[in-house]
Amino acid sequence: MIKICFMMPRHMDTLLLVVDEGSFEAAAARLGVSPSAVSQRIKALEADVGRVVVRRTSPVGVTDAGEVLIQTARRMRLLESETDDRLRGRLGERPVSVGVNADSLGTWFRPVLTHVADVGGISLELNLEDEQHSLAMLRRGDCMGVVTAEAEPVAGCVVEELGSLHYWPVGAPDLADELQAARNVHGEDAWASLPLLVIGPHDRMTDGVLEPRGVTPRPGRRVSRIPSFEGLNDAVVAGLGWTLVPVASARPYVEAGTMVRLAEDVIEVPLYWQHWRLESDTLGVLTDAVHAAAALGLSS
């Protein structure tokens, strides 16, 4: 039976600092102790749980066991903060870390910010990550909740349906003309060499347009990475390439003639809210806000 160190919060706090700061030395500087003292605390924690929790790399890495402890430590911090607030009869500042994809943040998720501001007492930290890869932040304990396209729950977490975000494949008018001319000659293979826009290294959403057409992107195709929701729209209008844009965002551009739908496809991406399985006032406020925003901005 593994000995869980709830009675050794110093060791758990040290683990969080080592991971957040990236090294034993940086954690030691924050704590005002020597790197050797930090190392001893981590070794004591590892001895208690009977497993290695930190990889001694640069920056430090975390093992599977370490991820479990980090998630637990962050939950403990939140509950301690809420308990202290209740005992003192006040509402203190509670940090909340959320993972969300750029398309959601740029569209339906925005009312969440207003709701959290109205409630007060919550310091919100948003971490941008592709909806196909945001669960890693939940597993590491970096976030208490994430917007994700993955329906399979992470251990110790709850998954709740939000709705679907719909996308159009769009490009500038000149790019649409270029595609049509190429399709007249090469058919659907014309998509293979069309310049592409992505928001990040994990962005593969345009595969939803290419794969049904049996199209394989050609080597050397121009791909531009624009790590900004608004910047991606600007890049489409500028003619830098084509991409998928949420319908609610693309519609005004299409109506104005600055974007053109390159096909009649509507790509549907189901989204879910995954969060810690924890009775927490702060998490409850956040979850209610996410569901309210999704009810207004996503398709059921």
Automatic annotation (TrEMBL):
<dbReference type="Pfam" id="PF03466">
    <property type="entry name" value="LysR_substrate"/>
</dbReference>
<dbReference type="GO" id="GO:0003677">
    <property type="term" value="F:DNA binding"/>
</dbReference>
<dbReference type="InterPro" id="IPR050176">
    <property type="entry name" value="LTTR"/>
</dbReference>
<dbReference type="Pfam" id="PF00126">
    <property type="entry name" value="HTH_1"/>
</dbReference>
<keyword id="KW-0804">Transcription</keyword>
<keyword id="KW-0238">DNA-binding</keyword>
<keyword id="KW-0805">Transcription regulation</keyword>
<comment type="similarity">
    <text>Belongs to the LysR transcriptional regulatory family.</text>
</comment>
<dbReference type="InterPro" id="IPR005119">
    <property type="entry name" value="LysR_subst-bd"/>
</dbReference>
<dbReference type="InterPro" id="IPR036388">
    <property type="entry name" value="WH-like_DNA-bd_sf"/>
</dbReference>
<dbReference type="InterPro" id="IPR000847">
    <property type="entry name" value="LysR_HTH_N"/>
</dbReference>
<dbReference type="GO" id="GO:0003700">
    <property type="term" value="F:DNA-binding transcription factor activity"/>
</dbReference>
<protein>
    <submittedName>
        <fullName>Lysine export transcriptional regulator, LysR-family</fullName>
    </submittedName>
</protein>
<dbReference type="InterPro" id="IPR036390">
    <property type="entry name" value="WH_DNA-bd_sf"/>
</dbReference>
<feature type="domain" description="HTH lysR-type">
    <location>
        <begin position="7"/>
        <end position="63"/>
    </location>
</feature>
